[in-house]
Design goal:
Helix content is 49%, strand content 18%. With 231 residues, it is an alpha/beta fold. The longest helix is centred in the C-terminal third of the chain and has 27 residues. InterPro entries: vWFA_dom_sf (IPR036465).
Length: 231
């Protein structure tokens, strides 16, 4: 069980650690990268699904000078429903796909997201997986096994947790660690945090750690301040 006595990190500290960790990841070759953008579409996630729909353009805008990005939308909802779309290369296409989805009650299916990412990257390299969710109702060991396999394939998973549910936090941290990715919590009332995180992962997926450093130099003051703290 996670230690509930540990103090929660601020958004600034979380992004600090995230940017620092991404900078240490293996280099990614230039050119169009493939990214799996996975979201929990169960009932509790409806408000944040709408928020992510508005912010998804950051995934493309941040990488337009790096060769672009091909993004596949994945989601689960309802009773054992899991969907993965085609890879798209334009924000309008991704927005249309997201707008066609409505959230439905159900249990989490994070394992299916990770297993799908394994299959995709064995077919053609996936540079990064982004997952946005708020809870976990699955076997931790099975999730860690799939995350470890993605780590062996050099496909990092970036786990973005809405809220601070303790069990989900502990699981998401393990998944990100084993895959070579990163974990960051966010508050849906602070959309700028999620916006910055999506842009940072997109830049990494498209151009690697060096591209992320270059991106931060011409990005917002918030990102610049965070990057200046990285040695």
């Amino acid at each position: 069980m996670p230690d509930k006595s540990l103090p929660a990190k601020s958004d600034k500290q979380s992004i600090d650690q995230f940017i620092n960790h991404v900078r240490t990841l293996p280099a990614v070759s230039s050119g169009q990268g493939r990214l799996v953008f996975a979201l929990d579409a169960t009932a509790s996630r409806e408000a944040t699904w709408d928020q992510a729909s508005h912010l998804q353009s950051e995934l493309f805008l941040a990488t337009k000078d790096l060769g672009g990005l091909a993004i596949q939308l994945c989601y689960y909802r309802g009773y054992k429903e899991f969907k993965a779309t085609r890879f798209v290369t334009q924000t309008k296409q991704l927005l249309q796909l997201m707008n066609a989805v409505s959230c439905l009650g159900g249990i989490t299916q994070i394992g299916r997201v990770l297993e799908h990412a394994v299959r995709e990257t064995r077919s053609a390299p996936v540079k990064a997986v982004v997952f946005i969710g708020d809870c976990c109702e699955e076997s931790v060991d099975e999730l860690c096994h799939a995350a470890g396999e993605l780590g062996m394939l050099r496909t990092p998973v970036f786990m973005f947790q809405e809220g601070d549910e303790p069990h989900a936090r502990a699981v998401f941290q393990q998944v990100s660690k084993l895959s070579g990715g990163a974990y960051v919590p966010f508050d849906r009332n602070s959309p700028q945090v999620l916006k910055d995180l999506l842009a940072a992962v997109a830049v990494y997926a498209s151009g690697g750690a060096k591209a992320l450093k270059d991106y931060s130099s011409r990005s917002s003051e918030q990102v610049k301040r965070l990057t200046q703290q990285i040695r």
